[in-house]
Amino acid sequence: MKLRQNTHPTKSTRAGRPASRIGLSLALMFGWTMANAQSSQTPEYISSMADFEVRALAGNFQPTNGKETMESVTPNEWLANDPGIVDLAGTIVAWSGGPKASAGTKLFVHGGGHNDSANNGLYAFDFAGSAAPTGWLLEDISAVSAVRAATSYNDGKPASVHTYDGAVYAQHNNHIYRFGGAIWSPSGGFTKSAWKYNIASGAWTALPDFPGTMNTVSSIYDPESRKIIVGAGGRNEVAFFRTDQDTWSSLKSTNGNFWGGDVSGAYDPTRGRGVLIGNGESRLVTINWSRETVDVSSLSASGATEILSTDGPSAVYDPFRDSYWIFGGEEGSPGFGNIYEMDAESLTIQRRSLSGASIQVLNSMQGSYGRYLLMPEWRAMGIVASHESPAYVIKLPTADASPIVRPLPPSEVATDQEAEAQLVVEQDAGALGEQETSSDNRVRQ
């Protein structure tokens, strides 16, 4: 796929992103290098839709595996004996989203927590198919007998949590990362615990705890740097998680402006900045991934801004239109009858009315957060808002053949090159240390 160069570099505000690496960034963003990437052929059940039409994946479009709902793949013991007060619905309604995804063919759901649901299942709806999608899958779940009020259950798997916006599908390594949240316990409480799930092997691994104070959590992910920024609502500090080393940076100041709560994060790699959307606390976040610095400021949007007031909406950047899609949210949000498009440069928001099927939303749902899948090459968005309803697909408008790419200003190229030079020095020093250690071992032998 040929990348189109934009000739207006003055509009760019990217930090730490040389133009020579943009192609890799976009390839990683869309999973073009991943085994589970979308095929070049849009499925017929999507291509037959009109722009902004919603289709329920049931009836004529029933999944080929016959699994139409989350409930249909949930073990009977969980349906009958979940110790939570809301049972399976708690994985949807209780400040729970899922690992947000903008690549591949699977929409993930993962939640529960507090006293709502102890169900720590990792659910996935696979949109792959032709005349119809594949359907619901249960990737992983503990036995009910393993449940305990701790960061992990007796089988070593993570306890259920209110995930908020703290879960990410990282397409660069096909892992899911989960940070913080409100843990399963009759008395509730936030946890600093962090986990990753290897989709290929089906294994959970505990990671080092988040280094700061935890609250409602949100995140911003960059596939190229392979890092994730994690912050807690109401705090003026964040930390960078480095997926290559499974380590945290030190806490980084947000320059006095607090990280929003009950919000969702999304990242625009062409400008080196992201957004936090929702709860009347929307923010603009300028990021230098190499230097691991961040600057947070209020987001001054115009147009159909009502969506910015809803709790826990979903937000994702679409480079094929150079805009953010904002939708979903809490029960009663306008984001289920409309999808909002915010221009990434001007931050002007347009309301796009949805047609077709009505999206079933559970009563008392607190947000949608990362419970979506952007399918950029298929021009579609996947969403679900109930464990009893089918999944839905929203048809997005056709875009340019290539995503927008902007040249990096010379000053930022220099900044990134300095950071890369320092990284090379550190790597050389590490290699020298390994050689010295090897020499010492040979002497001892």
- Name the CATH architecture of the largest domain: 6 Propeller
**Total number of domains:** 2
Which strand-content bin applies to the residues?
Answer: 25-35%
Bin the helical content: 10-25%
Quickly give the structural class: alpha+beta
CATH topology category name of the largest domain: Neuraminidase
- Biggest sheet strand order reads 26-2-29-28-27
End-to-end separation: 54 Å
Average pLDDT, to the nearest integer?
86
How many β strands by DSSP? 30
User: Major β-sheet, in short?
Assistant: 5 strands, mixed
Number of helices: 5
Uncertain regions spanning at least 5 consecutive residues: 1-35, 407-415, 423-445
CATH class of the largest domain: Mainly Beta
The CATH superfamily of the largest domain is known as Kelch-type beta propeller
Keywords summarizing the entry:
globular, disordered N terminus, five-stranded antiparallel beta sheet, 2 domains, alpha+beta, 445 residues, five-stranded mixed beta sheet, Neuraminidase
What does this structure look like?
The protein is of the alpha+beta class. It folds into 2 domains: 4-408, Neuraminidase (6 Propeller), CATH 2.120.10; 417-445. Helices cover 13% and strands 31% of the residues. It contains 5 helices and 30 strands. Strand 18 and strand 19 form a beta hairpin. The model is unreliable at 1-35, 407-415 and 423-445 (pLDDT under 50).
